[in-house]
């Protein structure tokens, strides 16, 4: 608190507030953080406290959007560069000044202090009202204000400090700077640019750490303090070996306590593993905790001897995780060829996916574990093929997340599963499957393509360990987990192949939708246009011919654009003959189509009609006559239609007499009047 006062980060508040309605008093207390044998104390101001019936300060403040990058994405980018640098903005929030009119909202009570001759601070019994002149960390908009200020600083000075601007974009989490470059020269240049850039706002940088030996030498010359073992966003980093390690929280002390459900939750949540490097071991603790829910154990109830024995055995082996070191740098360089490989698997207890990067530099091939994700199976049991599909979905989402937040190419990815059923679902049409499978395969295919999915044997699937769990002592020597299957570092010709194409198996077809045929159209005898709107038969045929050509052009790649041909006019005439026959003799046509006898009341039943190319034609004794087929079996039309057609024929053949026209016309058409066939005009 005295440090706040000495640095003018807080000040004595005036007796009369500038604005009474914007005055708030912040309660505060001390938080002790115990780590190993060291204790660290800090003051916490509570902006969320409130009196009964009133709002807290954080509730009335505009929080602002979240500008912080995701921790996993930042750590993934941190692993891509050979030279890594981190630092911390010292009291970064307190470098931002509060407006005079807003300071009374951050009032708090503290003792009057004085210093003796030795410079030691003493508290007096006089209580004063202080207020912040700088931005306190405890307010809800504080993260946004700091992030927005740093972004604005980087953006305005990107031309002067291009390397720093590029590295800091998306890599500042609160006041932590996480950066990486490829060479030693770039590391030295980056350090100078970042330091000079932050000096523009008087932000001192501390807690420096790097694996660059040249930069470390420079720091020693400049008396810059740096650590060999530090933390990157909570992950332990040994800069001498450039490796990640499990945080050495001494969890073995829980062996001395009775095993309860509450203790299980407290112990399991202590593990911080955002990259999922130790997921197979942590899964065991999660399964233990889920078992307590299934057995109905209360929070403070002592576990059964069987579960307690397994729990204590797992706890006692956790110290072996401290001996595991994972390379921070995955070995990727600008000249490297790489491919991504995601393995997916599921079991009765959990499902998940693990991602490896295969890097080829010349004749050398190296496989590195990049990250993993897993989930416990839901308490509501679902079939194993469905769980396998959920594991594939996690793999697809993990690939999308990594490629969206890094420079890695999603097209260089191959996804592996040992489930032939899930593979068949992914390679099939999503709309073919029931809702559960359809929704998940649709999302999988949104991030991947069917050709990216391959089958691998279950015994060679490293994701098996994040779906079943493994003891801490076995994890350190589990090569298939850290380096992937042996064949992955070999030539692709040695990778697993599918001997036969996937077949329709019962588990796969069980998720198929039942096919329901729904009529998309209904039959109708109504013509496409109303013939009564046309006074000219020629015009009716031409308009009909144009419509028929349009429909044909819609279905064909080779379209017609020239004038109408005689064949198209004949097709238009034929169309109207079919329309008229279906309107006048629909009952007879339906009966003939079903090979059934005509109704007794039909006007044409005695003339033995038949269908020829969907046309209703006259039968009878004329079939034995010496005449053409059209003359022996004329088309049947209604009387009024025949009169119109005959008038048309006479109008177009005005040079001959009407008797000759009618004889020529009725060789092709006939009409019905009552029960008689009349072929005279």
TrEMBL record:
Coiled coil: none annotated. Pfam families: Peptidase_A17. The chain crosses the membrane at residues 639-666. The keyword Transmembrane applies. One of its GO terms (biological process) is DNA biosynthetic process. Keywords: Membrane, Transmembrane, Transmembrane helix. The keyword Transmembrane helix applies. The lineage of its organism: Eukaryota, Metazoa, Ecdysozoa, Arthropoda, Chelicerata. It comes from the Eukaryota. This is Reverse transcriptase domain-containing protein.
């Amino acid at each position: 608190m005295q440090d706040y006062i000495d640095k003018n980060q807080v000040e004595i508040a005036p007796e009369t507030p500038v604005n009474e309605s914007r005055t708030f008093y912040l309660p505060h207390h001390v938080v002790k953080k115990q780590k190993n044998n060291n204790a660290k104390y800090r003051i916490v101001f509570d902006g969320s406290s409130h009196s009964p019936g009133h709002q807290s300060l954080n509730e009335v403040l505009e929080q602002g959007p979240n500008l912080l990058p995701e921790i996993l994405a930042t750590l993934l980018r941190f692993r891509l560069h050979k030279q890594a640098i981190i630092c911390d903005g010292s009291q970064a929030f307190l470098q931002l000044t509060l407006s005079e009119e807003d300071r009374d909202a951050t009032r708090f009570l503290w003792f009057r202090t004085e210093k003796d001759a030795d410079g030691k601070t003493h508290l007096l019994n006089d209580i004063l009202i202080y207020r912040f002149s700088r931005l306190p960390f405890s307010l809800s908009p504080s993260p946004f204000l700091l992030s927005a200020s740093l972004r604005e600083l980087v953006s305005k000075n990107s031309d002067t400090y291009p390397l720093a601007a590029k590295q800091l974009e998306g890599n500042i989490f609160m006041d932590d700077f996480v950066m990486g470059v490829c060479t030693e020269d770039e590391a030295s240049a980056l350090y100078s640019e970042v330091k000079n850039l932050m000096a523009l706002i008087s932000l001192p940088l501390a807690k420096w750490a790097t694996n660059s030996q040249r930069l470390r030498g420079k720091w020693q010359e400049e008396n810059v303090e740096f650590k060999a073992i530090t933390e990157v966003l909570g992950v332990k980093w040994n800069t001498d070996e450039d490796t990640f390690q499990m945080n050495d929280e001494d969890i073995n002390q829980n062996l001395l306590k009775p095993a309860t459900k509450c203790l299980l939750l407290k112990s399991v949540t202590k593990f911080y593993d955002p990259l999922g490097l130790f997921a197979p071991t942590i899964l065991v603790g999660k399964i233990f905790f889920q078992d307590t829910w299934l057995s109905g154990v209360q929070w403070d109830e002592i576990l059964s001897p069987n579960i307690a024995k397994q729990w204590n055995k797992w706890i006692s082996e956790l110290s072996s995780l401290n001996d595991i070191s994972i390379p921070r740098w995955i070995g990727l360089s600008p000249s490297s060829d790489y491919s991504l490989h995601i393995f997916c698997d599921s079991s009765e207890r959990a499902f998940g996916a693990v991602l490896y990067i295969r890097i080829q530099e010349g004749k050398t091939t190296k496989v590195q574990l990049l990250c993993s994700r897993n989930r416990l199976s839901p308490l509501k049991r679902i079939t194993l093929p469905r769980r396998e599909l959920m594991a594939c979905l996690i793999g697809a989402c993990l690939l999308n997340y990594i490629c969206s937040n890094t420079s890695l190419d999603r097209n260089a990815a191959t996804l592996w599963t040992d489930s032939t059923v899930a593979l068949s679902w992914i390679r099939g049409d999503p709309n073919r499957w029931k809702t559960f499978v359809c929704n998940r395969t649709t999302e999988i295919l949104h991030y991947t393509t069917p050709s990216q999915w391959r089958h691998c044997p279950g015994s060679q699937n490293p994701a098996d360990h994040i779906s079943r769990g493994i003891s801490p002592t076995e994890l350190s020597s589990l090569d298939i987990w850290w380096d992937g299957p042996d064949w992955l570092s070999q030539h692709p010709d040695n990778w697993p192949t599918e001997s036969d194409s996937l077949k329709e198996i019962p588990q796969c077809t069980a998720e198929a939708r039942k096919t329901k045929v729904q009529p998309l159209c209904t039959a109708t005898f109504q013509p496409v246009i109303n013939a009564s709107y046309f006074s000219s038969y020629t015009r009716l045929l031409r308009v009909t011919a144009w419509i028929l050509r349009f429909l044909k052009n819609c279905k064909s790649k080779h379209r017609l654009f020239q004038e109408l041909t005689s064949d198209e006019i004949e097709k238009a005439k034929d169309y109207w003959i079919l329309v008229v026959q279906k309107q006048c003799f629909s009952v007879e046509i339906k009966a003939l189509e079903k090979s059934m006898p005509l109704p007794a009341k039909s006007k044409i039943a005695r003339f033995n009609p038949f269908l020829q190319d969907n046309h209703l034609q006259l039968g009878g004794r004329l079939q034995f006559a010496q005449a053409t087929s059209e003359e022996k079996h004329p088309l049947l039309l209604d009387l009024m239609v025949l009169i119109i057609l005959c008038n048309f024929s006479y109008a177009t053949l005005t040079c001959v007499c009407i008797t000759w026209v009618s004889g020529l016309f009725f060789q092709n058409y006939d009409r019905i009047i009552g029960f008689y066939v009349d072929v005279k005009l």
